[in-house]
Fold these 3 entries.
Entry 1:
Amino acid sequence: MQPSVETLVQLLESYRGRDKVIRAACYGSQLVGGLLSRKSETDVPSRRLGKRLLLFSAQLSHCRTVLRLFDDLSMLAYSHSYGLGAGEEDAGVRFVSVLSNVADQLYYPCEHIAWAADAELIKVKSDKWWLLSTVLWGTSLLLGILRSLRVLLLLKKKLGRNERDGGGNSRSQIRRQMQREVLSVLSNMADLSNAIHWMPPGFLWSGQFPNWLVGLMGTISSLVGLMQMKAGDSDGTDSPESLPPPIMRNSPGVLLE
């Protein structure tokens, strides 16, 4: 079996790896589908394929939403193990990380309620719960960006001290850590742009992204997540950069142009 195929199989055998692959396929389909659906009206086959890809993307998003019904305990275990961040040396990183864990933990029940309302399992309106889950997701992403920027600042200071002391091995390790934090910032910013797009009308650029741009931002974030996982940067729990977006419902106002 080819090494690339073996790598994909290994990814799909783990829950977290499978989620990242589905996420990449979801946003990749939305990117390509969004571009094809913008073709000239005379190019009927391309537009038809584009709409099918958008519907496929919506189904993958729904699949991830259902799978996240079982993520609360793993997130709770991670939050409990982190606690108040006693292992962190910097108070700023500790404070932001705790707030981020709170936002992540609250995200799941809000999304569950919204999903149950849309599935008509409970008699409540789902709109406010989707909005609340989006706000929590955006808050987590923003806190993740602040945390990474703070860590980058601390690593830059540490790198300067090591250069003066002549620590070659530690310098290369610090640079690798800085690269991972830069990738986390890139991933979070791409997801945050989508989170703002899903906010109510009138908030910054909410509702202004076409399908292909939403797909592009999500694809960038998903590819970064796969790179980090391959590099062993994943800890097996939902971190701010991997916390998923609310379900993309397959209605004309959301997915189909």
Note: Confidence is low (pLDDT under 50) at residues 233-257.
Entry 2:
Amino acid sequence: MDDILGDGGILKEVVQPGEGPPIPQNASVLIHYSGFLEYCDHPFETTTNNRYPPMMKMGRDVTLAGLELGLLTMRRGEFSRFLLQPQYAYGEMGCPPFIPASATVLYEVQIIDYLDSGQVDDFIAMCPEEQNTVTLSTLLEVVNTLRSFGNRCFNQSRYYNAKDRYKQALMLLGNRETQLEPEKEKIKTALLPLYLNLSLTELRLDSPRKALKYGNKALEIDSANTKALFRCGKAYLELQEYERAQSCLITAQAKKPFDSDINNLLRKVAICYKDSLDKEKVFCSRMFTELNGE
């Protein structure tokens, strides 16, 4: 094992190397880990039974000094073991009843992914005037990180959290003041996936009107975007506006004629529309019968 500090307090064994740069300070890390007492086969704590690996903020959620120092040496996709002496783990007191006094502990750690949230924290701490002095490339990096956070939340069905992240990114882009056309185009390019993601998120939250609002904003940027057309079509279907739903989906179908999702939804709209017309005919027929009966 490698002595990462030179004092023997944290020893590291790389089981599977990772890729890219090491984890930066203040990053948010998507991680699986298990902690073992020395010479024990069963962990005293583990995340491997969780449905989703936790996202942990460096400097806040990672409380063991040795584990945090070890994480800073790791890369995306890496799996490593760390042997921590008491001074870098639970100290002389331990953590009864699970961790005895002056215990040496072993942690197995797998880095699924990480996001440089420290950059986001620093940017959001600025006032809007300061944010406008930062380069556009930095703003776009912050926006991409927020969108990635939102995507993580969405994939874990945490739709309200995802929505908050996407809207935060929208706000930062909206605050950007520029008269330069190339910058305006880059901002539009960054806005498009946010509008698309918000449209889908609102559909999952059973808010078709809001989904339609964001879908239409996406179409203002790219009128032929099939994802936006599909989501608008789905929103119109849920609002029982069948003709508008058909219009969106037929336009999307013209772009992607063999897309099964588009074709299946178009069939569903046609069935619902026919049922609606049939019910309307029955209702009108009854009304006419009642009127004649009187």
Note: The mean pLDDT is 90.
Entry 3:
Amino acid sequence: MSDLAVFATLLLISTAEASNSRSHACGSAHAASPPRITSSAPAPAPAPALAPAPALSAESPKNDPAPDAAMIFDVTMYGAVGDGKTENGMIIEHGVSTSKVYSAFLAAWDDACNHPGKSTLLVPNGTFFIGPISFIGPCQNNQSPKVEIRGTLKAPSSLKAFPTPSWIMFRQLQSLILTGETTTNTSLFDAQGEESWRHADCRHKLKCQFPTSIILVNVTNGNISNITLKNGKGFHMGIINSDNVTVHGVNITAPWNSPNTDGVHIGYSTNIHITSSTIGVGDDCVSIGPGSINITVFNTKCGPGHGISVGSLGKYSAEKDVVGVRVKNCTINGTQNGVRIKTWPGSPASKASSFWFEDIVMINVSNPIIIDQEYCPWSTCTSSKPSLVKLSDIHFTNIRGTFNTKSAVALMCSSSVPCEDIQLLNINLTHTMASSLQGGGHLSVKGALHGLEINGSSF
């Protein structure tokens, strides 16, 4: 994660929400809501709560069949138009003496959220042009409607259309299911970020914010599956202050040179699991920020991008610790980094511990294994003091493949707070130009390190 200003803004939204009234909460009144569809279709029950250490599987998470049917709330029945050009954020109706303005998507959401039984918010086939929008709970019986995307949602291309740091937000919801069409692969969120990427300098100088495509804030027991996110202006997906969320079978794509387009960013959340997904972007495929506990990335393909990263950590004061990150059975291809832990110099004191990076294939990666406690993008650091983030209990196991730089393993630890208990087991990495670089020894160590174990390895 590089865009720390955006992350901080999103975090402020989350922590302030308890004192804010919901602008589009369930039960909000409409002058004359459009008719709802009364047909029904079977829907899965809410995703079950995840155990602290679930068994890893490449199979899609299963939901028990629902004993009753769900009411379908189709956005087109509320005035939404899927022609790829009509603005669906606001619909204007002219009456005898007045005009009424309402959001077709939010009108459908409010009715679905208010429904006393199971409900589904449906976006059918078509291309729906829509500006920033928030789907906010809590809903009836404290259960979120299922959100089913069969078509394409397309964002405005201009940053001027985004007064907030997100495009689509789901907030304060229980048992959210956001799912796409599994057979036609048409469930697309296109953020149209190409124009915004030209303003990267504005972001680096912290003068503007680039919206996250989809963000979950205060969501519990969520299941996100079978959707595609494309060309984010900033992060593609953010998960903040949430618990028990599974992201499965998601495809995220942006050009390798699109700035700060992290695939999935996680912060201040617990029990988050990313499985069987494909992520290729211009920044971290997955970035795991402060306050993250029990995070799993399993059976996921990463590349292009900057790899799978913990951090950056230590940019702000009073950051919460990171505990328990497991990255397993992943393939990282053509990235700037492989698996990485990064902290800022001069950071306040915090801790990050219990990391397991195992069964990973590296293909032509620049820095396959890296700990960087001198992380300083764009040369913006204001301190030359060492990082005070304490890193410990770090395991790299069964990692193999190829790399293209001087060091296969780089351990740049703090000179003030030593890294502790790092294990390299069965690491087998070969330089892409092995014939011209004879022998091994591609290990770089800097700073203070207590307890380094290397066994069964060649690099």
Note: The CA atoms of residues 306 and 336 lie 5 Å apart.
